[in-house]
Amino acid sequence: MLKSLCLLNGTSGDEGAVAEFIINEIKDYCQYYVDNLGSVVAFKKGAKVPKNRVMLCAHTDEVGFIITDITDDGYLKFAAVGGIDSKVCLD
Fold it and tell me: pLDDT tens digit string along 46-60?
């Protein structure tokens, strides 16, 4: 399941495939809804009222790049999509 999830396109601003995958996996096991920003919010009720509760929270998006131009020499120019630190990119 993790491999399938990781292979989905979830670039920032286009996380719909990831949300759909998650919904298909959880829909038979809990209550859920999708908020106005596209976040999947799920709730699984236990058999008893617990003293403590557990919350799991994660991003469904991933950082990426978008091609912004192809030069006459065939080079690609690109820009970051999401929170990519330019220090980790090759010049």
Answer: 899 989 999 989 888
Question: Using one digit for the tens of pLDDT, what is the confidence trace for 5-34?
Answer: 989 988 888 899 999 999 999 999 999 999
For residue 55, the surrounding DSSP H or E stretch is: none
Q: How far is CA 50 from CA 46, 53, 54, in A?
A: 8, 6, 10
- The helix/strand count (H/E) of the chain reads as 2, 4
Strand, coil or helix: what is 2?
Answer: helix
State how far the alpha carbon of 28 is from the alpha carbons of 25, 32, 42, in Å. Answer: 8, 10, 11
Alpha-carbon span 26 to 69, nearest angstrom: 40
